[in-house]
Write a sequence for this structure.
């Protein structure tokens, strides 16, 4: 997707994302900012002075970071979607015309992750939760992160992990196949950066002196199949798919998906996403 297409998609998806998806990203967000050192108190380690959050989404991670950072640390958040920015401002009690909360040393900007409007070396910490695999050119995003970090600065990213370990994205396909429904897939899979060896190589090629990558699993915060259906039938892509299907077949898809998830959970299985994450030093 181009940057313009990404902005349009996330503007349309912002409300559903904030309600159903973003709560599930918070454990990974905590993992990223903890690896940056935001929650550490080791003797001799310098305090973080300025943090950049790229692709802040609906602001749940931003709010977490604001609550964890030291009062003197500046936090700058940005997102490509003006609707996401608006939701973040409401979450933080800001007026829509405001761009900062001076007493919290916080600012927010509408911009593209591949074309950041910040000076070279402006930050000593950078994190981006579930964005690198979505941008038009991930190498550009890595290069921009390297540029805006000062020497010795730390950066952290998360992306979708290995598809075979991420059952939350195979369930709809499995049920659709059973019903003879054809799902149109994007030209580039959102799992295209799942290989941690590749992630490290990309970071080192961008100039980072150190790069560590690994996997973790995060289960969906759902309790039953109905909640899964509410979540995964709320996307812009699903709304388009609905227009192409017989209404009865679409309802059957939802019913069978709910039953499928209920059966998995009764068997004691988590539904969730494996996440690959990358921690780098400039």
């Amino acid at each position: 997707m181009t940057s313009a297409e990404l902005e349009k998609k996330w503007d349309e998806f912002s409300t559903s994302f904030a309600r159903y998806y973003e709560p599930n990203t918070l454990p990974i967000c905590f993992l990223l900012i903890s690896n940056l050192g935001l929650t550490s108190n080791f003797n001799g380690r310098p305090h973080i002075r300025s943090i950049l959050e790229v692709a802040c989404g609906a602001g749940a991670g931003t709010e977490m970071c604001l609550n964890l950072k030291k009062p003197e640390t500046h936090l700058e958040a940005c997102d490509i979607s003006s609707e996401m920015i608006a939701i973040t401002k409401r979450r933080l009690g800001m007026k829509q015309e405001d761009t900062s909360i001076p007493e919290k040393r916080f600012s927010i900007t509408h911009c593209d992750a591949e074309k950041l409007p910040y000076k070279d070396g402006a930050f000593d910490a950078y994190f981006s939760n579930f964005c690198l695999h979505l941008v038009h050119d991930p190498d550009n995003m890595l290069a921009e992160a390297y540029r805006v970090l000062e020497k010795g600065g730390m950066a952290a990213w998360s992306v979708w992990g290995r598809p075979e370990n991420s059952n939350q994205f195979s369930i709809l396909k499995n049920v659709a196949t059973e019903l003879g429904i054809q799902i149109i897939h994007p030209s580039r899979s959102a799992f295209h950066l799942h290989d941690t060896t590749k992630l490290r190589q990309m970071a080192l090629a961008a100039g980072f002196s150190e790069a560590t990558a690994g996997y973790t699993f995060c289960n969906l915060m759902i309790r039953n199949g109905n909640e899964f259906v509410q979540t995964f039938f709320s996307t812009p892509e699903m709304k388009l798919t609905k227009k192409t299907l017989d209404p009865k077949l679409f309802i059957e898809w939802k019913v069978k998906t709910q039953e499928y998830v209920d059966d998995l959970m009764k068997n004691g299985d988590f539904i969730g996403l494996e996440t690959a994450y990358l921690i780098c030093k400039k």
About this structure: The chain has a mean pLDDT of 95. The beta strands are 50-54, 74-79, 100-101, 106-110, 123-129, 149-160, 210-219, 272-281.
